[in-house]
């Protein structure tokens, strides 16, 4: 009886600590649901909500559970926005640990399969691009390699089955989604130039003589921050490049089809 009472007291204590911890973090599932409802594919919208989620990284399991439920009930365009959000959270939360990555790893395969199976060519290309990014950054370890191999195979199978009559729809879809993509290239270039200028000023301000002094820590932290900005801007430039490359590829495919048909009627 004493043992059961002791266990009960410990259990009640743990529940109370969890409740107090959640109160101290200020996280609210209801507020998160409201923020998700306002999410759109614009870069600023994704970054703003990503920063909020990372701030509440101690509640990452609840965040991912809510994200997952919203994803599977959403139309394609929102699915794409939600995947971009997940990508931004995982990429930028690593400094706080791997908890978000571990939580998203539990649900991301089903989410990718949903968009690939039920989405259009643009949605499938988003899947391919994200899988490539995650493998390149070794975000999921060996699981990332398996995802890349799986979708490389799926894309080859899909391409071999695709009839030529869908080329016009492919071109239109690629063009529309490129225009709506969450990439402001002019803004990214300004951010990139600003970060490079900041690093140059850091070198002038601190110099090598400061690295062993008390200012060395500030120098390293500021350098890390600017490195993170540069890495993220480069990643978004790659996304923009991928969207344009997809459009160019679809245009070339359509052109080749028309050239072949022209030769047939000559």
Describe it for me?
It is a single chain. This protein is mainly alpha-helical. The chain has two domains: 28-161, Serine Threonine Protein Phosphatase 5, Tetratricopeptide repeat (Alpha Horseshoe), CATH 1.25.40.90; 168-266. Helix content is 81%, strand content 0%. It is built from twelve helices and no strands. It has helices at 2-25, 29-38, 43-55, 60-72, 76-92, 99-105, 108-118, 121-136, 142-161, 167-179, 185-206, 216-265.
Q: What is the H-and-E element order? A: HHHHHHHHHHHH
Shape: globular
Task: Tell me the number of helical segments per DSSP (H or I, 4 or more residues long).
Answer: 12
State the name of the first-level CATH class of the largest domain. Answer: Mainly Alpha
> What are the low-pLDDT stretches, counting only 5+ consecutive residues below 50?
none
- Main sheet attributes: strand count, strand direction, barrel closure: none
- How would you state the average pLDDT, rounded? 80
The number of distinct β-strands equals: 0
Distance N terminus to C terminus? 96 Å
Question: CATH fold name of the largest domain, please?
Answer: Serine Threonine Protein Phosphatase 5, Tetratricopeptide repeat
Cα-atom Rg, whole angstroms?
23 Å
Keywords: mRNA processing
Pfam family, one: CID
GO molecular function: RNA polymerase II complex binding
InterPro entries: CID_dom, ENTH_VHS
